[in-house]
Design brief:
By secondary structure, the chain is mainly alpha-helical. The protein folds into three domains: 51 residues, no CATH class; 174 residues, Transferase(Phosphotransferase), domain 1; 28 residues. The chain is built from nine helices and seven strands; from the N terminus they run E-H-E-E-H-H-E-E-E-E-H-H-H-H-H-H. The protein has a three-stranded antiparallel sheet with strand order 1-3-2, covered by helices on one side. The longest helix is centred in the C-terminal third of the chain and has 27 residues.
């Protein structure tokens, strides 16, 4: 059971926010979410959620990282859950490990998304509402909440699930951080396949236009890993983006330089 906060007794704004939370929670009737309903004949402002005897993803990550297969399943789940909310013109607003329940054992996890207290109509919020370490960079500069800002939060969650680290470190709400390219995920977890690394790094791209723009694009790449294109930040050196091309280029530069020196020496002798 979840009751209205104490502040709602004297604050119409808190009461209205809780009323919206109830409305959103009871509308999101899908296997992706913990089922919520308002009991008939209630005399107080509250709603009831089904009990799920399952740890949060945050709890699981304190003990171990997710396997690659579980992380892929989590990515698909988050994209699907977000699309369910989008059909209601909503976004979750606070996707993070604390709001994801893990059901099952290590070999076969399923998930549920909880806490729709931050859910809002898409494009309706331009504040820093949510958890700072999972907010897209543009959210710190008053950009509205959108599919691509939610995708960023999903990407941060997946990066953390596979590495045990936040891609951009711990960020506090009062900060206006400067974002630098995240460390390549495969350097932290060599088990991560290149296609999955590309998906996650595209999801957490600093520049929003380089990110997935829609949930459907993210879902497509999870379902078709063979079609995923490599992704690197724009200032990534060629040796990291394409080592083969780097060494080929170096070889031909060395070859041409050597030939030029040989011809120059032959010309001096003649």
């Amino acid at each position: 059971m979840k009751f209205a906060p104490v502040e709602a007794l004297e604050s119409p704004g808190h009461l209205e926010a809780f009323t919206h939370e109830i409305w959103n929670a009871t509308r999101a009737q899908s296997a992706h979410f913990v089922r919520a309903y308002e009991p008939p004949g209630q005399t107080m402002r509250y709603y009831v959620m089904e009990f799920a005897d399952a740890p949060s993803l945050a709890g699981v990550l304190r003990e171990r990282m997710l396997s690659v297969d579980s992380a892929i399943a989590l990515g698909k789940f988050l994209a699907d859950a977000a699309q369910v909310l989008l059909r209601l013109d909503l976004v979750h607003g606070d996707i993070k490990p604390e709001n994801i329940l893990c059901i099952g054992d290590y070999t076969r996890l399923t998930f549920k998304l909880v806490d729709l207290g931050s859910a809002a109509a898409i494009f309706s919020i331009s504040s820093r509402a949510g958890t700072a370490s999972y907010l897209a960079p543009e959210r710190f500069h008053s950009a509205p909440i959108s599919e691509r800002t939610e995708i960023f939060a999903m990407g941060v969650t997946l990066y953390q699930a596979l590495s045990g680290k936040l891609p951009y470190g711990q960020i506090e709400r009062f900060q206006t951080p400067v974002f630098h390219p995240a460390q390549r995920l495969s350097k932290l977890n060599p088990n991560v396949p290149s296609w999955l690394e590309a998906v996650i790094h595209r999801a957490i791209a600093i520049q929003p236009q380089r990110r997935y723009q829609h949930y459907s694009e993210l879902t497509h790449d999870f379902n078709h890993p063979e079609r995923v294109q490599p992704f690197y930040e724009q200032d990534t050196p060629l040796i990291e983006r394409n080592p083969v091309a780097f060494y080929k280029t170096g070889f031909f530069v060395f070859l041409l330089t050597t030939l030029w020196l040989v011809l120059k020496l032959l010309g001096q002798k003649s």
